[in-house]
Amino acid sequence: MKEKQEPEFYAFEFFKTIFRIKRGIYNNLPEQFSLNLGAVELMSIHYLRKKEGVKTSALSDYLGIPGSTLTGILDRMEKNNYIIRMRDPDDRRVVLVRLSDTLREKGPKMEELIRQFLEIKNINLPPSWWKDMTMELKKLESLLIDSED
């Protein structure tokens, strides 16, 4: 039987594979290290570690999730003393988020978690592979997001 050559066939398989990879990472990474944090929380910590006082809208954009979803995540993180919310001194309507001092000093560092995750999964790809793949996926992301506008 002749293999299908239609782009939509390969696109569907590609999207399915990306979905499965995402699900595998989201399910396995926090669980792998017995952390009481989901993948979105880990990505938030990674982003906030490099910033001091981030607008919730900027964090929402970075994570690619709606603000309403982020609110629940931040509520849980604040309850666990992972983050601190504060009002922007220049515009009291704006909420800023930063890591708590304890988490900033002792919290999980994504680079170390990813290194350990790759080691446990026995994934040993060169940095150039990760860089090239990321560039290609960002091109696709741009095409998909620009087509929504």
Mind explaining what this structure looks like?
The protein is mainly α. The chain has a domain at 36-107: Winged helix-like DNA-binding domain superfamily/Winged helix DNA-binding domain (Arc Repressor Mutant, subunit A). The chain has 7 helices and 3 strands, in the order ααβααββααα. Strands 1-3-2 form a 3-stranded antiparallel sheet. A hairpin with a 2-residue loop joins strand 2 and strand 3 (91-99). It starts with 6 loop residues before the first helix and ends with a helix. The mean pLDDT is 85.
Briefly say what this structure is.
The chain has 149 residues and is mainly alpha-helical.
Structural class: mainly alpha
Strand percentage, roughly? Answer: 5-15%
Termini distance? 40 Å
Shape: globular
CATH level 3 topology of the domain at 36-107? Arc Repressor Mutant, subunit A
What order do the helices and strands come in, and which of them pair?
Elements lengths: L6 H26 L6 H11 L4 E2 H8 L3 H13 L3 E6 L2 E9 L1 H6 L3 H11 L6 H22 L1
Antiparallel strand pairs: 1-3, 2-3
